[in-house]
Amino acid sequence: MRARKKKNTPERLLKYSHLFINKENRDEAFFENKKIKIEIGCGKGAFISQSALLEPDVAFVGIEKVSDVIATAAVKTDECGAKNIRLLMADASELCDYFSDHSIDTVYLNFSDPWPPNNRAKRRLTHRGFLEIYKRLLTEDGRLEFKTDNDKLFDFSVDEISSNGFEITYLTRDLHSENVPNVVTEYEARFSQEGVPIKKLVAVLKK
Ligand SMILES: C[S@@+](CC[C@H](N)C(=O)[O-])C[C@H]1O[C@@H](n2cnc3c(N)ncnc32)[C@H](O)[C@@H]1O
């Protein structure tokens, strides 16, 4: 996501610092006895804020590496009124520094950057390197949910996920034609308005 540089990012990060976890403060009391669901690459926070309102007993964490973008997610988190969201400004590769092994119920990857050239495949959030991290973090019954507009990234992800310790339990190449519950993300709204079919898969750990 290319965001225009916003001058007030440091002020917004400071104003909403109580919504953030970091290495010094993991806010363990917030997570106690709760299911944890995380969105990696949460962008401006539309998905995480709607999801948190729908499931108030779940602890949601929006993870985003770009400061301007997560500062906007912080404003949205505050405005939506949900009390069950925390934010983490970090790269997905660092997640094991913040979460205990087998502590996460669901990893959401929504409209992850496709990184088209093959020599950049390692940066895709469905690359086997990241899948190893999710396998470590997910509970035994945990799940990975992935949505994208991008056919090539979807095909890559189906192969990568099914050949690296996960079993795909749901797959559609046109999510919006199906009668299933769905929380629409910012990118999803944009792509579906343009008529691009939304692809989705759900995967669980192979037993
Ligand atoms: C295309 S946007 C999608 C945003 C949102 N999930 C949506 O569906 O509207 C992808 C986001 O993922 C973030 N991102 C990409 N790679 C990441 C990584 N390795 N760790 C954390 N965030 C990442 C980008 O900064 C960007 O904000």
Can you walk me through this structure?
31% of the residues lie in helices and 23% in strands. It is of the alpha/beta class. It has a seven-stranded mixed sheet with strand order 3-2-1-4-5-7-6, with helices on both faces. The chain is globular. S-adenosylmethionine is lined by residues 1, 40-43, 47, 63-66, 69, 91-92, 110-113, 185-188.
Q: How is this structure best summarized?
A:
The protein has 207 residues and is of the alpha/beta class. The chain is built from 7 helices and 7 strands.
Tally of separate helices: 7
* Tally of distinct domains: 1
**Tertiary shape:** globular
CATH topology: Rossmann fold
Q: Compute the gyration radius: what is it?
A: 16 Å
Average pLDDT level: 96
**Low-pLDDT ranges:** none
Structural class: alpha/beta
List the SSEs and their pairings.
Blueprint: H1 9-15, H2 28-31, E1 36-40, H3 46-54, E2 59-64, H4 67-80, E3 85-89, E4 104-110, H5 128-137, E5 138-148, H6 151-162, E6 166-172, H7 186-193, E7 199-205
Parallel strand pairs: 1-2, 1-4, 2-3, 4-5
Antiparallel strand pairs: 5-7, 6-7
Helix pairs in contact: 1-4, 3-4
Bound molecules: S-adenosylmethionine.
